[in-house]
Amino acid sequence: MAAQTHRIEVTLETLLESVDLAESICMRIAEAAGFSEEELHKIGMAVREGVINAYNYGNQQDRRKKILMTVELDPENMTVRVLDQGRGFELHEIPDPLEEENLLRTSGRGLFLMKAFMDQFDVHTAPGGGAELVMVKKLPHKVSNNGTHQPE
Amino acid sequence: MAIQATCRQNGDVSIVDFSGKITLGDGSALLRKTIRELVENGQKKIIISLYDVDYIDSSGIGELVSAFTTVRNAKGELKLLHLTKRVHDILQITRLFTVFDVQSDEEVAIRAFR
C-alpha cells in the first residue's frame, strides 16, 4: 500500500486563545503519531511559540488578520507550518538570545525555542508577504533509542 | 491549570509561590503585577518559588527576566527557588542560569541574601 500523507489546515483568528487551540490540536496529532510525553511537550511548545510569533509580531494582534496553520504527517515526519499576514522577516536579522548582550532582553526567545525543540526549523517569506514558520519533527519510529536518527 | 501566586513573608524576605502555567496572557501578567507590587511596597529581597510551575513559554521567561531587572533596578535581589525539570531545562538552554541565582532549598535561599 502506498504511504500516505495526511494534512490538515486550520485558520486561526488573531486572538490569544488561538495559541492554546493550536498547541492542543498539534499535541493531539502528535500523540496519535506516537510521540513520547516529553516530545509532545516540545512539539506543543514549539507550535505555541510559532503562533505567539504570528499573533504578536506577524499580525501585530490585528484581529482582521488570520493565522494559517497546516499540519502534515507523512511516513517520516510531522511538519507544522504557521503562516501570518505580516511583513515577513529573515532569520539572520533576529538577534541571538544566547549572546551576552541579549540575555536580559525580555523578548526574542521564541524562534530559538522552536529551533531547539524541533528537528528542523526554517522561515520563508510567503508570496503574499507574511512569514511562514516551518517546523519538522522526525516521527518516533525514525529515531533510535539513543536519540539519533536512523539511516534510511 | 489557572495561574496562582501566593505571597508570604519570612523576616525581610518575600516569598512568592507560583502554581500553574506562566505563559503569554494571565500567567505572565500575574507575575509582572506581583513583582511590581512587592517592589513598590519596598521589598528588596524576593524569592520566586516555581515548585508548582511545570510550564513556561518565552513570554513567561521574558517576564522572569523583567522581574529580575525590576528588582535589581530597585537595588534589591531576586532569587528563583524549586525549579521543576522543564523550567530548569528551559533556563539552561536559554543560558539564563548565568543570570539568575537558582536555589533548591528555601532556608539556604533566605540565608543567601546579602
Question: What would you note in describing this structure?
Answer:
The complex is a heterodimer of chains A (152) and B (114). Chain A is α+β, with helices and mostly antiparallel strands. Chain A has one domain: Histidine kinase-like ATPase, C-terminal domain (Heat Shock Protein 90), CATH 3.30.565.10. The longest helix of chain A has 22 residues. Chain B is an alpha/beta fold and 114 residues long. In chain B, 40% of the residues lie in helices and 32% in strands. Chain B has four helices and five strands. Chain B has a five-stranded mixed sheet. Chain B starts with a strand and ends with a helix. Classes of the chains: A alpha+beta (152), B alpha/beta (114).
Summarize the helices and strands and which ones pair or pack.
The complex is a heterodimer of chains A (152) and B (114).
Chain A: E1 6-13, H1 17-32, H2 37-58, E2 66-73, E3 77-83, H3 110-117, E4 120-125, E5 131-138
Antiparallel strand pairs in A: 1-2, 2-3, 3-5, 4-5
Chain B: E1 4-10, E2 13-22, H1 26-40, E3 45-56, H2 58-73, E4 77-81, H3 85-93, E5 101-103, H4 106-111
Parallel strand pairs in B: 2-3, 3-4, 4-5
Antiparallel strand pairs in B: 1-2
Helix-strand makeup class of chain A: alpha+beta
Mean pLDDT over the residues of chain A: 92
Helical fraction of chain B: 40-55%
> What's the level 1 CATH class of chain A?
Alpha Beta
Radius of gyration of chain B: 13 Å
Major sheet characteristics of chain B: 5 strands, mixed
Mean pLDDT of chain B: 96
How far apart are the first and last residues' alpha carbons of chain B, in Å?
35 Å
How far is the N terminus from the C terminus of chain A?
A: 19 Å
CATH architectural category of chain A: 2-Layer Sandwich
CATH class of chain B: Alpha Beta
Quick one: biggest sheet of chain A? 5 strands, antiparallel
Order of strands in the sheet with the most strands of chain A? 1-2-3-5-4
* Number of discrete helical segments of chain B: 4
- What is the name of the CATH topology of chain A? Heat Shock Protein 90
Which overall shape of chain A is indicated by the principal axes computed on the Cα atoms? globular
CATH homologous superfamily label of chain A: Histidine kinase-like ATPase, C-terminal domain
How many distinct helices of chain A? 3
Please mark out the parts of chain A with pLDDT under 50 across 5 or more consecutive residues, or reply none: none
